[in-house]
Automatic annotation (TrEMBL):
This is 2,4-dienoyl-CoA reductase (NADPH2). SUPFAM superfamilies: FAD/NAD(P)-binding domain (SSF51905), FMN-linked oxidoreductases (SSF51395), Nucleotide-binding domain (SSF51971). It holds the Pfam family Pyr_redox_2. Transmembrane segments: none annotated. It comes from Neolewinella agarilytica. It comes from the Bacteria. Its cofactor is [4Fe-4S] cluster; FMN. InterPro entries: Aldolase_TIM, FAD/NAD-bd_sf, FAD/NAD-binding_dom, NADH:flavin_oxidoreductase, OxRdtase_FMN_N.
Length: 678
């Protein structure tokens, strides 16, 4: 194994009573498998595959210590021995692969979606419809006992340790900050009283589990909310947590109600490692850096720069279970990189669906989707080199089929090539890179600048033909649609046609938002997603930590180089159908760029004066230089019917199958499901 490229990453970490094989932590993710019937058996397969991939230490999704701590009124806390056997499915599977695993103990407090929410005081979180009741003094004591009981049951279930979730705005955080904790008893008031709750949990847990059990404490090093902890308070708590018996301190960044994006693709790689670095030397136990560390190169850089003793990666292990092993084997180019889109992971969790991954539909479905060697290899043609075609060709060839990929343009990537030029979506290039490497590795014949024809395909001797020709922008029909001012989104993003100093965008779906982001960005300055300091300035994070929570007095975004109008026909706020965990980021970003958002628009005509519209019954003329159409897509498919008539076995996937509400998540999943069975 070639470890020389990552000497810090693959150095063992001695914890005294046990040693971790490397410095990689698979961070906590709630997958919803924890809450469904038979989910623990599926979780076992999920975690075992990552352990087999040589992750140093795994942390599970959050497990509540009591019913009041549940995130949702479903699922089960670990509060009785009746639940232990479920967890043993997981620990047995991980240990069979020579892995180590800790269970996260998470009490959501006022973040729960339940009428039984509790917190430090009577309060209501802005992200939950349910108010929370302040715990009585007796209930605080009982909650601490519930944490201890949960840790003991985790030990009984053969976990190697626990992570006590003390960040992200959950119950422990709610006790620590005075904006939530307004108690006047021994658990409130002065800071020393407010931190007594986490300290008692850690201290009593250590007493209960003994010395040879990992206790990770997830410390909120950066609250990113008004009234959050000061840096001096964070350091003080870290030192007390160490004294109380923690083995490791993990970094928590931001509360869920923060106005600062902390994990979206817009966040620079390793963007918050500076916070953990600031803590280095303040305590003597290992520190873990986290958030947007998605490659072995970035992980090695974080460690080499002295930012932490260990790095946490969570979603990257949805994208690729073998991330660590591939890095160890000197094959980082074969890693399927997490692009931090949240579409199939967090967005699924928050809509009560089992998590997965846009670029790896097998994630959390390891018992259902597998790419076994083909028993009877076939000769396949894949038409179209966008995300669906790339996934189909790569997986089919991995299974042993003889695959030829036809792409009419000069490059692979399809719609993802347009995504890569959007500020904050540069990561999408990694998916194109990954599939390109896989095509070469598995011997796919790639024919660029080659438009497939019915005659050529019919005479090619193919057993099956997969059509993944994608989509093309949908045209609108109103007076002036052919005016020189009018462009479609592909002409702007792909063909780079010039756009004037004022522009109206018709269509406020995902593509409309992307085009608005693109056109409100000054390309004389690098995207803030590529520069940590510029990102923090734009979103209002004070890297000097002069105020509690580390928020600056206000964000300082770069101004838009042009006036942008984002128009839609329907009522209501813009972007309501965007991803649940990322839509607010897109709306906030455009608001900072002062994009004008107009709803209830009827498009009358385009002429030399500009775009004539009616807004909620009132006539207006937008004197814009250009109008960009982002009004949906239509299939780019002219082959299927003729090929079927010629007797060919034809399969349609992605936009070629259905352009309505197309996204890469659906396209890649359809591709993988299809070729897993061919």
């Amino acid at each position: 194994m070639q470890k020389t490229n990552y000497p810090h990453l693959f150095e063992p970490l001695d914890l005294g009573f046990t040693t971790l094989k490397n410095r990689v932590l698979m961070g906590s993710m709630h997958t919803m498998l924890e809450d469904i019937e038979g989910g623990h058996e599926r979780l076992a397969a999920f975690y075992a595959e990552r352990a087999r991939g040589q992750v140093g230490l795994i942390v599970t999704g959050g497990v509540a210590p009591n019913k009041a701590g549940l995130a949702l009124p479903i699922g089960h806390p670990l509060d009785t021995e009746d639940e232990v056997w479920k967890h043993r499915h997981v620990t047995d599977a991980v240990h069979a692969e020579d892995g180590k695993i800790c269970m996260q103990i998470l009490h959501t407090g006022r973040y729960g979606y339940s009428e039984h929410n509790v917190s430090a005081s009577d309060t209501k979180a802005p992200i939950s419809p349910f108010p929370a009741r302040g715990l009585t003094g007796e209930e605080v004591e009982q909650t601490i006992k519930d944490y201890i009981n949960c840790a003991l049951l985790a030990q009984q279930a053969n976990y190697d340790g626990v992570e006590i979730m003390g960040s992200e705005g959950y119950l422990i955080n709610q006790f620590i900050v005075s904006k939530i904790n307004r108690r006047d008893d021994e658990w409130g008031g002065a800071y020393e009283n407010r931190i007594k709750f986490p300290l008692e949990i850690v201290r009593r847990t250590r007493e209960a589990v003994g010395p040879n059990f990992i206790i990770i404490y997830r410390l909120s090093m950066l609250d990113l909310v008004e009234g959050g902890s000061t840096w001096e308070e964070v350091v003080h708590l870290a030192k007390e947590i160490e004294k109380a018996g923690a083995t490791i301190i993990n970094t928590g960044i931001g509360w869920h109600e923060s106005r600062v994006p902390t994990i979206g693709t817009i966040v620079p790689r390793g963007g918050f490692a500076w916070v953990t670095k600031r803590m280095m030397g303040e305590v003597s136990i290992p520190l873990i850096a986290t958030n947007r560390i998605n490659s072995p190169e970035m992980a090695e850089s974080v460690l080499a720069d002295g930012c932490a003793h260990m790095v946490s990666m969570a979603r990257p292990f949805l994208a690729d279970a073998n991330l660590v092993r591939k890095a160890m084997d000197g094959l980082p180019q074969e890693i399927n990189t997490c692009i931090a889109c949240n579409q199939a992971c967090l967005d699924h969790t928050f809509t009560l669906q089992v998590s997965s991954c846009i670029v790896n539909p097998r994630a959390c479905h390891e018992t259902e989707i597998n790419y076994a060697p083909a028993s009877a290899p076939k000769k396949l043609a894949v038409i179209g080199g966008g995300p669906a075609g790339l996934a189909a060709a790569a997986v089919a060839a991995e299974r042993g089929h003889d695959v030829t990929l036809y792409e009419a343009s000069h490059r692979l990537g399809g719609q993802f090539n347009m995504a890569t030029v959007i500020p904050g979506k540069e990561e999408y290039q990694q998916t194109i890179r990954y599939y390109s490497v896989m095509l070469e590795k598995h011997g796919v014949q790639v024919l660029l600048n080659t438009k497939a024809t019915v005659e050529g395909l019919a005479s090619g001797g193919y057993d099956d033909i997969v059509i993944a020709t994608g989509v093309t922008p949908r045209r609108l029909d109103f007076p002036g649609i052919d005016h020189a001012k009018v462009l479609d989104y592909a002409e702007v993003l792909s063909d780079k046609k010039p756009v004037g100093k004022s522009v109206a965008i018709i269509g406020a779906g995902g593509i409309g938002f992307d085009v608005a982001e693109y056109l409100s960005h000054d390309f004389d300055h690098p995207s803030v997603s590529l520069n940590v300091e510029e990102y923090m300035k734009e979103w209002g994070v004070d890297m000097d930590y002069a105020r509690g929570g580390s928020l600056a007095e206000s964000p300082k975004p770069l101004p838009s180089p042009r006036e942008v109008f984002l128009l839609k026909r329907s009522k209501g706020k813009h972007g309501k159908d965007l991803g649940k965990t990322t839509g607010w980021i897109h709306r906030s970003s455009l608001a900072m760029k002062q994009v004008n958002m107009l709803a209830q628009c009827t498009y009358e005509k385009v002429d030399d004066e500009g775009l004539h519209i009616t807004v909620a019954g009132e006539a207006r003329t937008l004197a814009v230089d250009n109008v960009v159409i982002c009004a949906g897509q239509v299939p780019l498919n002219t082959l299927a019917e003729a090929l079927t008539a010629a007797g060919q076995s034809v399969h349609l996937i992605g936009g070629a199958r259905n352009a309505k509400e197309l996204d890469a998540k659906r396209a890649i999943k359809e591709a993988c499901l299809l070729v897993a069975e061919l």
